[in-house]
């Protein structure tokens, strides 16, 4: 039986609809949105005494159900199909004496002006506005004009729609320009994702008298569970908000049907601020056989630990899900801009939402466990927030790590899942608002650093590898920087929180360091929050590293024993986030080689996800430096490259490991604690010669 039109244009044809309803017979046809789902929204805007006009009524049961539950009785239904009007008159008849069905074209209605308090449209606008041809848009303009004419001031046009972008834009544009209030409701779904995937919306257009010369637009969106509508500033924002909800519905439908082959993520936002409150990652483990209690679980990542490999990387989350033993695990990251009361409140807030992402076959009675590390949500205290023209918005925060240790971090918010710098604290920081006892009466500065920094700690594995690379300087003579040797002259480009130069300064007593940092804000952050300080052995120059090296190449060749690049790229569109591409171009690398001593080492932190670009960088480095070692950092994208200007110093990894072990022994000085995780020998035994 043919029930669909040959072309979308037939949706506006009287002939098509007569044929459609004759073939369908008495069976009600609901475009979308059954009465139980629509009722909560309609009940807000339709009063029992309202006179209601239903345009394009078809043989839907909506009017009958509204009448029967007592929502309202004075309902006039119109349609262009004579067949369906006669069918509906017979079906309702004497059962509903106050409700009528009339054969009428809504583009030319016979009703007087301001005759109704409500005009209800369930799918009719969607059926007419099938394209954006001139004739179609003219027809829609006539429809809107007639609806506007028959509605009283203060009346509501309720339009049930799938909110395709061109349909939503047309409706919002027309009525907002007329001075009407426009509100878009998302209708709560029936939960039957198999039957209908796309969410249903109700546009609520409230008629007001147009004020001449006024450009004020009142646009709002409201999800059924939210209650209070959220104001948006423009039609573009409203359309984007609707699209977000449509994409989420499609995601939920997909996840309810089949296991997810790739990890999917979704942000759940705070309705007041619009900022992300939770970031969810859905991880399916097909190897887990479903049993009574292992279908589905939620894992709350403690605050501040979302950047760790186990939680922040796809492979880490896959390992976490497999070890947890659930077929589907949803990891939940908490955002620093938000406040959380505790695990119980998070569970109450998320319970309804996460069930929308439940796996196929989840029993209705199944209790879904909420898991975490140690059963708490972690500790995060933001001490400082600012913005820099070069680095953008950034925060300095303290977080609790695994165990009893606390760490201070610098995070650039443009890449909030990457820790820019980290330092271990010597003592737990005070809680926000906690008062510290002071012997003097002087008030502490509001920006006073709340805890001392452990200068012996290197948080980053790539920093440990860079320090280990200094053993390449160790020949038959003692290592430069050893008390029996000559001074170790080092150039570091990229300060961040200052942990790398600070460590070298602390442990290499004869090291003389020049640090170049392009952003003056970072020098302030490192000094005030990360215990960094300058002296006669360590000086910072606020300058572009490219310009600084250019100047040195012309003035002071063969100056440095070691040059270290640990500088991030501000351009996130490039597949290489460290260093910026200009730092690995051949002419610049040749200048780096010029200022490096013949027996020196150039150490580069490379973070490149683009395989072709990475190979190109390595090829360029090989052209400039005859000897090139590489050290991959396990579980991270970072790769440390050790480049030397002379091939004569070539050594195999075993020899390098032995040298690193000797270096480590020389650095274990009295009064300088040495972290047991600094296995420099292991760092260099894993190098490869390129």
From TrEMBL:
UniProt domain PABS: residue ranges: 490-664
Record's keyword terms, sorted: Methyltransferase, Multifunctional enzyme, Polyamine biosynthesis, Transferase
Active-site residues (renumbered): 566
GO cellular component: cytoplasm
InterPro entries, alphabetized: Lys/N-term_MeTrsfase_sf, Methyltranfer_dom, PABS, SAM-dependent_MTases_sf
Gene Ontology terms, MF aspect: methyltransferase activity
Bias kind Basic residues: ranges: 434-444
Chain intervals for the UniProt region annotation (Disordered): 424-450
Membrane-spanning parts: none
GO BP: any one term: polyamine biosynthetic process
Family: Belongs to the spermidine/spermine synthase family. Belongs to the methyltransferase superfamily.
Entry-linked PANTHER family: EEF1A LYSINE AND N-TERMINAL METHYLTRANSFERASE, SAM-DEPENDENT METHYLTRANSFERASE SUPERFAMILY PROTEIN
Protein name, as recorded: eEF1A lysine and N-terminal methyltransferase
Organism from which the protein derives: Brachypteracias leptosomus
Gene this protein is translated from: Mettl13
């Amino acid at each position: 039986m043919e029930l669909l039109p040959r072309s979308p244009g037939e949706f506006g044809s009287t002939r098509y609809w007569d044929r459609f309803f004759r073939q369908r017979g008495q069976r009600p046809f609901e475009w979308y949105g059954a009465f139980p789902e629509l009722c909560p929204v309609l009940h807000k805007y339709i009063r029992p005494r309202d006179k209601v006009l239903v345009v394009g009524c078809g043989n839907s049961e909506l009017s009958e159900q509204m009448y029967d539950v007592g929502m309202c009785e004075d309902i006039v239904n119109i349609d262009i199909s004579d067949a369906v009007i006669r069918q509906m008159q017979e079906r309702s008849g004497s059962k509903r004496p106050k409700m009528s069905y009339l054969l009428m074209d809504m583009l030319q209605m016979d009703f007087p002006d301001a005759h109704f308090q409500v005009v209800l449209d369930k799918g009719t606008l969607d059926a007419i506005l099938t394209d954006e041809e001139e004739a179609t848009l003219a027809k829609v303009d006539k429809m809107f004009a007639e609806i506007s004419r028959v509605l009283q001031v203060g009346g509501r046009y309720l339009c049930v729609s799938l909110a395709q972008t061109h349909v939503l834009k047309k409706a919002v544009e027309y009525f907002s320009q007329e001075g009407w209030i426009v509100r878009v409701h998302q209708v709560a779904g029936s939960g039957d994702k198999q039957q209908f995937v796309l969410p249903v919306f109700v546009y609520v257009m409230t008629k007001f008298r147009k004020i001449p010369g006024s450009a004020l637009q009142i646009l709002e969106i409201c999800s059924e569970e939210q209650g209070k509508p959220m104001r948006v500033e423009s039609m573009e924002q409203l359309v984007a908000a609707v699209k977000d909800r449509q994409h989420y519905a499609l995601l939920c439908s997909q996840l309810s049907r089949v296991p997810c082959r790739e990890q999917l993520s979704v942000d759940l936002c705070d309705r007041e601020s619009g900022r992300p409150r939770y970031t969810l990652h859905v991880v399916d483990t097909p190897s887990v056989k479903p049993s009574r209690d292992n279908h589905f679980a939620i894992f709350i990542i403690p605050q501040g630990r979302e950047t760790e490999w186990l939680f922040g990387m796809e492979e880490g989350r896959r390992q976490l899900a497999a070890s947890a033993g659930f077929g589907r695990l949803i990891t939940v990251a908490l955002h620093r801009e938000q406040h959380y009361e505790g695990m119980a409140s998070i569970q109450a807030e998320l319970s309804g939402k996460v069930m929308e992402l439940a796996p196929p076959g989840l029993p209705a009675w199944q209790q879904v466990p909420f898991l975490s590390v140690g059963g708490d949500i972690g500790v995060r205290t933001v001490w400082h927030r600012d913005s820099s023209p070069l680095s953008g918005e950034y925060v300095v925060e303290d977080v609790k790590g695994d165990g009893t240790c606390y760490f201070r971090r610098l995070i650039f918010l443009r890449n909030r899942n990457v820790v820019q710098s980290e330092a271990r604290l010597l003592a737990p920081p005070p809680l926000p608002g906690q008062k510290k006892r002071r012997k003097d009466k002087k008030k502490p500065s509001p920006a006073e650093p709340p805890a001392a920094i452990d200068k012996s700690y290197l948080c980053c594995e790539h920093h440990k590898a860079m320090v280990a690379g200094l053993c390449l300087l160790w020949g038959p003579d003692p290592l430069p920087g050893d008390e029996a040797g000559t001074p170790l002259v080092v150039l570091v480009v990229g300060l961040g929180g200052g942990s790398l130069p600070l460590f070298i300064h602390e442990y290499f007593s004869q090291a003389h360091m020049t640090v170049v940092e392009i952003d003056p804000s970072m020098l302030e952050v490192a000094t005030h929050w990360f215990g960094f300080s300058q002296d006669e052995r360590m000086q910072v120059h606020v300058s572009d590293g490219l310009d600084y090296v250019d100047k040195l190449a012309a003035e002071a060749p063969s100056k440095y024993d070691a040059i270290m690049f640990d500088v991030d790229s501000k351009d996130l569109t490039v597949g290489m986030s460290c260093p910026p591409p200009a730092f690995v171009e051949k002419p610049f690398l040749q200048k780096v080689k010029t200022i490096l001593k013949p027996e020196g080492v150039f150490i580069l932190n490379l973070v490149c996800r683009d395989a072709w670009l990475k190979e190109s960088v390595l090829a360029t480095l090989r052209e400039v430096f005859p000897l090139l070692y590489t050290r991959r950092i396990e579980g991270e994208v970072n790769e440390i490259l050790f480049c030397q200007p002379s091939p004569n110093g070539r050594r195999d990894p075993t020899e390098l490991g032995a040298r690193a072990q000797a270096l480590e022994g020389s650095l274990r000085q009295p009064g300088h604690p040495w972290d047991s995780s600094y296995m420099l020998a292991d760092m260099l035994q894993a190098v490869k010669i390129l």
